UniProtKB/TrEMBL annotation:
PANTHER family (UniProt xref): BLR7761 PROTEIN, YJGH FAMILY PROTEIN
Protein name per UniProt: RidA family protein
Superkingdom as given in the UniProt entry: Bacteria
Length: 129
């Protein structure tokens, strides 16, 4: 079983995430590529919440392919194109993640391959063998 790391000697997280996650040696790991807010039929919805939802729905499918789900997440790396997208991203992220909340990093970047994209999400998941 993975373990959330939240030492009392470190300031509490700013949002719903763990400072670290411990993964025992007997776990399989899955690393996803960054997922953009684009559907299988090449639709890019407007707005960070809609795009984030597509990112996490794509991640759900990738995890399922490995026999995993969101309860197996140990790390999320996310990228948004502006501070104004942070709250919308975090709102949707929290709809998909489970407790204990995985370790998480959110960065502001200058852009992605297409102008329409405002968010990209990649994850690491771990599950016992």
């Amino acid at each position: 079983m993975t373990k959330s790391l939240l030492p009392s000697s470190v300031r509490a997280p700013f949002a719903r995430y763990s400072h670290g996650m411990e993964v025992p040696a007997d776990h399989r790991l899955v690393f996803t590529s960054g997922q953009l807010g684009i559907t299988v039929d090449d639709q890019i919805p407007q707005g960070v919440e809609a795009q984030t939802r597509v990112c996490f729905e794509n991640i759900r499918e990738i995890l399922a392919e490995a026999g995993m789900d969101f309860s197996d997440l140990v790390r999320i790396n996310a990228y948004v194109t502006g501070r104004e997208h942070m709250a919308g991203y975090m709102k949707v992220r929290d709809e998909f993640t489970r407790d204990p909340a995985p370790a998480s990093t959110l960065m502001i970047v200058s852009g992605f391959t297409r102008e329409e994209f405002v968010v990209e999400v990649e994850v690491v998941a771990a599950k016992p063998d």
